[in-house]
Amino acid sequence: MWTHLGISGKVEHPQCKIEHPCLPEGTFLHFICDVPHIVKCIRNHMMKHKYGQVGEYQANFQHYERLFEAEKKAAIKVVPKLTEHHVKPQKLQTMNVRLATQLFSRSVSIGLKVYRQMMVPGFADSFGTEQFTMLLNDLFDILNSKVPAAGIRKGSPKIKFLDDFLAMLNETESIPNVKLFASRQTIESLRVTLMSVLSLVEFLFNQGVSYILTASLNQDPLERFFGLVRSFGGDEDHPTVTKFSQLFRLLSLYTPVKLATKGNCEAGDERVLLSTFESLGEKRREALLQKRKVKDEVFQRLTSLPSRGLSAPFDDDVYSVSSPEKAALYYLAGYVAHKMMK
């Protein structure tokens, strides 16, 4: 469809928009590929081909697999949320966007860095994978912003990041005989998407918009709605236009009718709600008292320990970190101490 309309993601002659056929001159239709779907395609491509180039960095999917295997044996994990489903997704799991975005996350990038700095075997050359992971993390965050605090604003460094990422895509494709981090079709779709987002950002700012939530440009809400319609169709998961209209009207009434049929105004329910509220308030007060008690006890124990003079030499071996597990332990200890001081 893109080709028939003149849209192209080829680096030689990219085209991301066409003039609107019905609206006044100067109004354009922008074409955008679903960003979560792009991230999922990148993960699947890397999982299949094992490595790929992005800019000056070469990413290797085996680093993610080694990270999971190392973390699996650790009692205290550097990346606790990393599971086998992230690095070895099965069948329908390859279609799960959440698993793909969590793999290309800041925490995984930091985890790879920790293992490399600790000189763990198998991570000596993981720097490229770290940078690649962080790039995709930042790209997805920018192109999937949902709250005003994360939106794109005029003069934001996020705009420069998108420009730089687009330039990096072009540079990577210009390298002869390079093995890319994604399929040619995925990269062309990403190029069109980046160009469209940058063009829309400029247009909307000129119209006086203060910030832009890029998640509104993605297809997830639409896909969820169509999935809901198909699920209501029973065995017929490809409804006709007439059937779709009927299901749409049914769904429009389903929620308010369901709430009305299940609602009641009996006095007994109000007393239950009131007693539940009082019970929750009491539990909250008990939790606060317990928290203060634990905090005072820890503080008392820490202050009762024999202190070392400021002039006393410290043993460097005490603070040396020899493994990622110990690094995570020291980090947790510092975090707990910091929280206890508040």
Descriptive account of the structure:
α1 packs across α4 (about 95-105), α1 (about 35-50) packs antiparallel against α8 and α7 (about 155-175) packs antiparallel against α8. It is built from 13 helices and 6 strands. Among the domains are: about 30-215, no CATH class; about 220-255, no CATH class. Helices cover about 60% and strands about 5% of the residues. Residues about 260-275 and about 315-320 have low confidence and may be disordered. β3 and β4 form a beta hairpin. With about 350 residues, the chain is mainly alpha-helical. The strands form 3 sheets. The protein has a two-stranded antiparallel sheet. A two-stranded antiparallel sheet has the order 3-4. This is Transposable element. InterPro entries: TNP-like_GBD, TNP-like_RNaseH_C.
